[in-house]
Amino acid sequence: MPLTNLIVPGGIVADVSVTNRKQALHALGELAHKTLDVPARPIVDALVERERLGSTGVGHGVAIPHARTDLVDEVAGFFMRLKQPVDFDGVDSRPADLVFMLLAPENAGAEHLKALAQVARLFRREDIRRSLRSAPDSAALASILFSAVDANAA
């Protein structure tokens, strides 16, 4: 499935104010609640449980929290740019300000892993990270993400 199909309508937000990873995960749960009409608490619990297994901070100021849940029927993606970076225990010890959450159905083994790999590949690109950090608003973030994804698919 193309990454553009994974990003939930309304699932991209800019300049979210949080002061730590827990607040960031709560904000992501609320975003899932608002866009998918699912309860936020079980989403947050699933994300926190996944973080206990190992950090989802992938370096370069990027985190990719992800979890499996029976609250979604297909893999769903959300992007949040934080106003101030927070510690996600990144592999390079750098705090994250670019956060992409993936939610997958409980039974989405390979599909979940493929989506995770696509997102990780996208955020390895310095030009994408730089553009996302300088974008003025959510609409610009969406434009950058969708054009980058289209270019990757080509």
In a few lines, what is going on in this structure?
By secondary structure, this protein is α/β, with parallel strands linked by helices.
Helices and strands, with pairings:
Elements: H1 3-6, E1 7-16, H2 21-36, H3 40-53, E2 57-59, E3 62-63, E4 66-68, E5 76-86, E6 96-104, H4 109-123, H5 126-134, H6 138-153
Parallel strand pairs: 1-5, 3-6, 4-6
Antiparallel strand pairs: 2-3, 5-6
Entry keywords:
Mannitol-specific EII, Chain A, 154 residues, alpha/beta
Work out the radius of gyration: 14 Å
Name given to the CATH architecture: 3-Layer(aba) Sandwich
Number of domains: 1
Q: Given the C-alpha coordinates, what overall shape results?
A: globular
Order of helices and strands: HEHHEEEEEHHH
* Largest sheet descriptor: 6 strands, mixed
Mean pLDDT: 92
Based on secondary structure, the structural category is: alpha/beta
Which blocks of ≥5 consecutive residues have pLDDT under 50? Answer: none
Strand proportion, as a percent range, falls in: 15-25%
How far the N terminus sits from the C terminus, by CA atoms, comes to 14 Å
